[in-house]
Amino acid sequence: MPVAHLLTIGAGRLENGDQEEAAKLFQAAKEAGVFYLDFQDSLYANVLRDVGGLFDFAEELFNLSDKEKLQHDIDNLGELKLNGYKPVGRNHGGIGGGSDGFESFAILLLLLRSLSASLNLPADADLTNVHRVHVPSPDVFRLLHYTEQPTGETGIPQAAHTDLGSLTMLFARSPGLQILNPRNKQWEYILPKPDCVIINVGDGMIVFFDTLSVTLQLPQLAK
């Protein structure tokens, strides 16, 4: 199984202004667009504990009956589809162009501040200016459950895609996420790593700042 070898960025070292760590973050954003963020020795260490509870909550949630989950149908709760439940197979983009194979229930100024400094952005173009915590935004915290594939069926349950938004934080306990290696054009698995979250650069970074498209790597993902 081909595995992606990603850089690991220490959140605690970034908090302490470590310039070598900031340079490593910039390298990761340029070369792969995906990296691990290690929360150990960080102000965000409590996030890992909270996420453990969310995994337990997600398991209970997806074990509810379809009737109960569809009372919160995502297609009936708003045009942006940011809240609610999406059942397996409703959307297209799966194996051979078929339906998808997951169900879902639809938190990083530190990284943005460091990337802004590495990009030498002027104060009025700092990435944090368009990610203000006191301003309403369509941020999403989504719980995903990918169902098992039938025996003998190979492929991916979700089509290759880039992520919406600026940065995606993925907490995972099992493998499944793949990235298209920009150098050899081969699909590689991203394995979960203890005490870390997987971060990837999203479309929003390019939409907000056109010049970043020649600097930051926008990864193609499949789950």
Structure in words:
- By secondary structure, the chain is α+β, with helices and mostly antiparallel strands.
- The protein contains 6 helices and 10 strands.
- The chain has helices at 11-15, 19-31, 46-62, 66-69, 109-118, 203-208, and strands spanning 8-10, 34-38, 85-86, 102-105, 143-146, 167-170, 178-180, 187-189, 196-201, 221-222.
- Strands 1-2-9-6 form a 4-stranded mixed sheet. A 3-stranded antiparallel sheet has the order 3-4-5, with no helix packed on it.
- A hairpin with a 6-residue loop joins β7 (178-180) and β8.
- α2 packs across α5 (109-118).
- 21% of the residues are buried.
- Residues 97-107 have low confidence and may be disordered.
Quick description:
This protein is α+β, with helices and mostly antiparallel strands. It has six helices and ten strands, in the order E-H-H-E-H-H-E-E-H-E-E-E-E-E-H-E. The chain is globular, with a radius of gyration of 18 Å.
Strand line-up in the sheet with most strands:
1-2-9-6
- Report the principal-axis shape: globular
Order of helices and strands: EHHEHHEEHEEEEEHE
Q: What is the strand content?
A: 15-25%
Helix content: 10-25%
Low-confidence stretches: 97-107
Number of strands: 10
Instruction: Evaluate the radius of gyration.
Output: 18 Å
Q: Biggest sheet: strands, sense, closure?
A: 4 strands, mixed
* Mean pLDDT rating: 75
The number of helices is 6
**Distance N terminus to C terminus?**
15 Å
